[in-house]
Each structure stands twice: as C-alpha cells, then as structure tokens.
Design goal:
By secondary structure, this protein is of the alpha/beta class. It has helices at residues 43-55, 70-73, 88-94, 100-106, 179-189, 206-221, 242-254, 262-267, and strands at residues 4-7, 10-13, 25-30, 33-37, 60-64, 83-86, 125-126, 131-132, 138-142, 149-154, 159-167, 195-200. The strands form two sheets. It has a seven-stranded mixed beta sheet. Helix 5 runs antiparallel to helix 6. The radius of gyration is 17 Å and the shape is globular. The relative contact order is 0.14.
C-alpha cells in the first residue's frame, strides 16, 4: 500500500478491500506540517502508514480522530508527537484502558494484530464545534456512527475525509450510534464536498452516501426484525453480520433504550 495523491498536498491511505478492522486514513499537508485523519487499528497497520508519512518529509503535527473505535484510533501511538483532536465522547472513551480480548472478538480477522499491550493516546484537543484547523482543512462535528463524530473537509480539493461517518461496500456498525440520526446527518455530509473518502471502502461521492443512508433507514424500518430488512445495494456488501446489531440498536433507541445491542454482546462473549 502507498499514499495515494488525491489533490496537491492531499493524500489517502486506502486499505482495500475494506472490511471491519481494515480502515482508511488521510493526510493533509500544510506549511507547518501534516494533519492525519485517523490512524488505523494496530501497529502492523499504522507502522507502514507512519513510514509513508515520514517519507513525505514533514512533521506530523495533528491527528484528527473521526471516532474512538479502535480501527480509527488504534495507531495513535505511532504519531506520538502529534496533537490528537477528537470529540468529547472520543476523549472519554480513550481515557479508559482498552480491552484487547474484546477487540480481538470484535475484529476477529485481525486478532493476531492486537497484542496484550494494545493502547491508544488520549485526546489532547476536544472539538465541540466546527473549527478551521489549518489553512487547508476544517474539522466538522457530526452525529452518526457514534453520538459524536468528526469529519475533515479540505475545501481546496472539494473533498471530505468522512472516516467513521461513511462506509462504502462494507456494512456499518452502529452499536454506539443512532441509525436514524446517522441517516439524517448524511444529508449534511453530502453538502460539504462532492468527493468523499470513507472510513471503509473506495473513494465515492453522493451516490455512495445515499446508498449508506438508505441502508440505515432500512434498518430503522425493520423495527427490530432482521428478516424484514429490505433488499438494496447492501445485498453485496461485506460484514452482513452487522445487520442484526444495527437493526436491534435502531429498535432499542425507538423504544427509549440506549444500550449496547444484545446481538453485539453475544458476539463478544459478554
């Protein structure tokens, strides 16, 4: 894998084909150094990313985490001198010690990458409102995959690094979010930029965002019954085991219950 140049000073690190535990990352060049968007799951993933970043010849000044989930934040230790930006929810999660055993069950295809010393860096800068991080990019709070997410917009490239807010060709996992609110937030996301770099999958745009939106709304419409999930473009996506979790989560929230879905707890052996 290499850093793909998307526009002058804007790069993406794609891990394709996308799957749970195998996310993408972004790199933006400014006069003072680099801004990274997400840091991947583990040292075996973040180390080659870090080597490619080092080869650009600029210091990594900032890491923006689109979510606290390990597949986006697990590699923060590779960029130990960079400031870490995230939402308050991300900060609270990363202040807690990680449970490597749970992460191995959550990302079974990558269990051998997660050792007993797995740890992330804490958030150093909490982002609660839209902010122009650098002349090149802005961080925008959103509500979706979690109650509190971030995306990074690069206006000069007509591009948004959506991170955890978008998965293309990979079934999302909404166990910490609200599928209905996530679907609604995607209306805002498509207005940010025409080019979307997702947290999983290949680069896309409004068409792919609308497919994700339709899937999330289909999960809500299923009213807790996976057998009622209608067909759609998601029929060919990977990680369809997430359907039951997403549908249960949507139904629980509709009933005023904000808890981790039982389907996920069962999968994690909890």
């Amino acid at each position: 894998m290499t850093l793909d140049l998307l526009a002058p000073g804007v790069y993406a690190w794609f891990q394709l084909p996308g799957e749970p535990g195998r996310a993408n990352a972004g790199v933006i060049v400014d006069d003072d150094g680099l801004t990274l968007v997400d840091t991947l799951l583990s040292a075996p993933q973040s180390s080659p990313l870090g080597d490619a970043v080092d080869a650009l010849g600029f210091p990594a000044r900032r890491v923006v985490l689109t979510s606290s989930n390990a597949e986006y934040s697990g590699g923060t230790g590779r960029f130990r001198l960079a400031a870490v930006y995230g939402r308050a929810q991300t900060s609270a999660h990363l202040d807690q010690p990680a449970d490597p055993d749970v992460l191995r069950r959550l990302y079974p295809a990558h269990a051998d990458e997660i050792d007993d010393e797995f740890a992330t860096r804490p958030v150093s800068h909490i982002v609660n409102e839209a902010v122009q991080l650098t002349p090149a990019c802005a961080a925008i709070p959103m509500c979706g995959q979690q109650e509190e997410n971030l995306v990074v917009v690069v206006p000069g490239a007509d591009l948004v690094f959506a991170g955890a807010m978008c998965t293309f060709g990979v079934t999302p996992l909404a166990h910490q979010g609200n599928p209905a609110a996530w679907a609604d937030a995607l209306d805002e996301l498509v207005e940010l930029a025409p080019i979307v770099v997702p947290g999983h999958g290949a680069i896309g745009g409004e068409e792919e965002v609308r497919e994700l939106q339709a899937y999330l709304r289909a999960c809500v419409a299923a009213e807790g019954d996976p057998s009622r999930l209608e067909s759609g473009p998601w029929d060919t996506w990977v990680a369809r085991e997430h359907d039951a979790i997403n549908i249960e989560r949507a139904a629980m929230l509709a009933q005023g219950v904000d808890e981790i879905p039982r389907a996920l707890l069962h999968r994690l052996g909890l």
